[in-house]
Amino acid sequence: MYIHKIKKTGNMKVDAFVLTDNLLEISEAIEQLKNVASLPTIVKAAYAMPDIHWGYGFPIGGVAAFSNLISPGGVGFDINCGVRLLKTQIDYNDFKKYIESTIKELYNVIPVGVGATSKKFDKKSLKKIIEEGAKRTIEMGYGLSEDLEYIEDFGRISPASMEDISKTAYERGREELGTLGAGNHFIEIQKVEEIYDEKKANILGLYKNQIVIMIHTGSRGFGHQIATDYIKLMRNLHNDLPDKQLAYAYFDSDLGQKYFSAMNCAANYAFSNRQIITHYIRKVFSKYSKVEIVYDVAHNIAKVEKHDNQKVIVHRKGATRAFGPYHPDISEKYKSIGQPVLIPGDMGTASYVMVGTNENFAFSSTAHGAGRVLGRRQALKKLNLNQVLSNLQKRGIIVKSKSKKTILEEAPDAYKKIDRVVEIVDRLNLSKKVAKLIPLGVIKG
Questions:
Q1: Which UniProt key words apply to this protein (predicted)?
Q2: Residue 301, domain extent
């Protein structure tokens, strides 16, 4: 019902599978997926999650694994754009009168928007952060050692060497740690609206009417520069590309290894970015409750993993890892339930907490969000700012944004229905619903 097979034709080396209930709205993205299926050393098949839409090179929502290839277009410009969920011990009814003032305080404390900057890190400090990840950031005073248990890969991916990033990337990254950025990035104060699995929710420390905070941001200009640098280096390596945006290097080549290292630097930067933002949020919430991490998941990344007894480089571009119970890469805290999966909606709709399963259909992957139905330019042309704000106000959602343009670009009508996306991955057993969260207050860049 939701699995559409595109048989291998033309230059495709494997079949492709699109997991959706509507193929008509994603025709351009399907062509991109077919191009991905044409790349050398691809393993098994190319996959598209229900939130698939057109992207650079790979479609967003695309998943593919290769035995010996790595492609920046299969990762994206915002490397490790990810989601972190924080929990409090506050009941909604006790906190609702403080939501607006807390949103204003967070907005004033956390730099947001295009070009937002924070504390400048010198080269020595930034080197330690990008090579050692969230652990080093915590040692610098931005968190608790136990936080690492609740971050994918414990907040550090290797190999990661400063030698593999450009001076321009360093300059862009040195003062953006602890900033939100713009686009679809956000900080939301949310309420746990519904619990679907009490046992799993208890292990995650979630309960109905609880106040939680979601952070969605990534590696900022640092990751963007790394992607830009390596796309240029790979652009003319191969002449038989179905799409120039799918430039790649063989994984075991010198350039392939350098990009892998640089990409991991950006991933560690993103984990650290969310860690520093968590530190700021804890300061604001300290008068109400302690704040703990539920989990932090990465999107837009390529990882070496073992699937079907074969080591492969899994590219997840706008997709989430979703390992099932007792997978060796999951923290002991969550071994029994599987890896937590966080699927954010837009600023006017729900987000979901799910857990991974032992279904390995798409290399243990699931959706990462709602997926766009309107491009940003289309949203600016078609949507009315006053109407968008009025609709959010009617739902009792407080919005603070640096840019009116961002509110239009990221309006609920620009996205697919998140409930529909989550229902598909739940029914296909790619990940299972645990809790539904609804927004109360939103900060956008």
A1: GTP-binding, Ligase, Manganese, Metal-binding, Nucleotide-binding, RNA repair
A2: 3-444
